[in-house]
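Write out this protein's structure.
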Amino acid sequence: MKRVLIVAPHFPPVSAADGHRARISVRHFAEFGWEPIVLTVDAAMQEDLCEPELVDTLPAGLRVISVSAMPVRLARMFGVGNVALRAWPQLCRAGAAAIRQHRVDLVYFSTTMFAAMPLGRIWKRLFGVPYVLDMQDPWRVDAPPARGSVKHKGARQLHGWLEAFTMRKVDGLIAVSPGYIDTLRLRYPAIASDACRTIPFGAAIEDFAVATARSWNNPYFTAGARGPHGVSLGRGGTDMAVAASILFRALGLLRRADTPAPMGPLHFVGTDYAPGATGMCSLAPVAASEGVAELVHEVPARMAYLDGLRLLVDADFLVLLGSTDPEYSPSKVYPYLLSGRPIVSVLHESSPVVELLRRSACGPLVTFSSRPDVAGLAQALAGQLRELFECLPCYSALDETLYQTFSAHALAEQQCELFDRVIHSRDVRTAMVPCRG
């Protein structure tokens, strides 16, 4: 069986969003001929939310190598918070040792901690092992920031250099959006099209079984009381202001109608990546500007993943707001669909998940362009919302055929197919090297 070293600085018990691809995939890799070994950073050295129960979702016998890192308090004195930078020397040494000791065939980086990815080129130079990158977000950002400190500008320039260094020798790319791959292949033409795959985040129905077996009390509302209750789980941000304006304006239209629709509060939970209560609200101010502040309850603090799944199940309907970035692919859409709850979606028309939502027929959906007609879209959404509110509660099981398009099993198979192609391409190139007398 071939071996893959998965570099995932965020991995259970850490509950950061960029660790879930690797978490839900590793239980299926052996079925497709790959033994996974995970290289991560010790949870005790991280600031991110920890969720010990997530370890229960990992396969028995999984080999996990955890390394230490520069303590957060010390690193902050030098302006460094990124866990991959704080643990870079330790990751480098431990990865090299794992490649030698376990005869690793391929290295797979599944993270948004991009500073770890240049290790792929270093290890390839030292050991000849190919590497694949999982691009869950863009790495280099070309658009200049509206304002920023010297530190931020320097960090952007550094990321540009590191991306170029890493991409020039990469053997394969996985991305959640085809636009990410198109951009990278335009910058680095040597990346072959057959070495790239667009694979969505996916979800595992098994996670819901683990979540519902736990004891948990909903801190936000009592299911079925003073509803209907809408829930949005995950980040907010100024890039979602257009989608939020459309939704909140539609709610205002319903509230001011001659026959008001039954409405309960909308709960936006975990809208800021900042830890604890230090986060800032980004959606409540939009609700206030649209005159529906009392209908929106925003909680910036992150919520544990399994608790979040329980919250989805308690909701009467779910809310999915999209970014003005047309390539944005919200990972939460997949657990949303598995929850069986109706989904109210406001997304950019080019978002990769629009077609999936249309196929699922899971609830109201409006899409906006780069020059959105907020008033017109709000009017259209208001009509769809009225129909939804009048039929609640309503639940439906997801079609099995549709689930297979984003199940953890199916997506792990696609990842392993790319690993096999990369290994095969390397073997072919090696065989074509002429003998020298």
